Amino acid sequence: MPAGARAAASPFLSAEDISEVYRERAGTLNGLARERGQSLAQLALQWVLRRPEVTSALIGASSTWQLDHNVRATEFPPLTEQELALIDQYGGGGAGTTWLVGSADDVAAALRKYRELGVTHFVLSDTPYKSEVVRVGDQLLSRLREPDPA
User: What is the pLDDT of residue 28?
Assistant: First the structure.
């Protein structure tokens, strides 16, 4: 962890949380970012913002340099199919989370897979706005109540 990183003083992250598997996954993604001439943070932002249904990304910039650096994520070429496959393979799952980004059908399909594994409760969070809560209720929950289409 870089010296002075906020995560070093985080009550939510400890040295035990950073396993060898986590380091390998992060190292692979960091290698991809370097090959593209960008930082891992820029790669992550570019990955999130590539979807048309994502209209904004919340970042934790603690300086104007970090803000400028993150904004430059929009200046890189689009991610290729091969790069997206690598990100899908090594990304997500950190800190007990998963990435569920996509259409209501995409997210419902992903949640069904977790349900098949025995996961019965989820905390879905993003933008805590009434319109987003209504959209999730209207679009996602109704799909989860339907029988699995497969």
Answer: 92
Could you tell me which of 71, 140, 131 has the C-alpha nearest to residue 101? 140
Q: Which residue did the predictor score with more confidence, 139 or 7?
A: 139
Task: Output the CA angle 82-96-74, nearest 5 degrees.
Answer: 40
Nearest to 107 by CA among 89, 92, 124: 124
Q: Do 116 and 57 belong together in one domain?
A: no
Domain identity same for 51 and 20: yes
Distances 144 to 32, 108, 112, 131, 148 between C-alpha atoms, Å: 35, 6, 7, 19, 8
pTM for the whole structure: 0.59
